[in-house]
Amino acid sequence: MKSIKSLLTACLCLMLSAACAPHSVQRIDAAQAIDLSGVWNDTDSRLVAEEMTRQIMEAHWHRNFYMDHEREPVVIVGFIQNKTHEHINTETFIKDIERALIESRRVRVVQNAALRDKVREERLDQQNFASPSTQKQWGKELGADFMLLGTISSIVDIEKRKRVIYYQVNLELTNIETNEVVWIGKKEIKKFVKN
Asked: What is the DSSP string of 75-135?
């Protein structure tokens, strides 16, 4: 009985000392690439968005549209589906793509359906509460010419304490009026993880 009490006391002391271990937080540059687990992370999201945007802007669809319409095309970034084995917040990836497209200064970007509804609610609210000189008018929205849709997929190969994680991002740009797919892009990432 005495040995059980001693063992329980020792376990309790060990748990308390572990709980009281110093906790350290260090601020780092948000652009610094850190890959702790090997799963999809902020660096992957940013790098893939930048690469895919470069591919989109180098493709012929942009030049053809500009020659036919003499203006920059309007793009909406639609749904990007996560088909991977892990949780990926595709909203951050979508925002990385939108940011890269806007920074290219070669396309105009409009809000997706969910956020567009919020803008419309604000416009409706202004009709009731804003002064007439500052109210934003209905029927002035910029219609999108193209919609960007895609998927993020993964394959995982595991052997004992080693993993290879393969990610493939597929994006398609579709002409909204004609339903023609004008560009398809692919970006791959492969990670080797040892535990």
From this structure: EEEEEEEEESSS---HHHHHHHHHHHHHHHTSSEEE--HHHHHHHHHHHHHHHHHS-TTTP
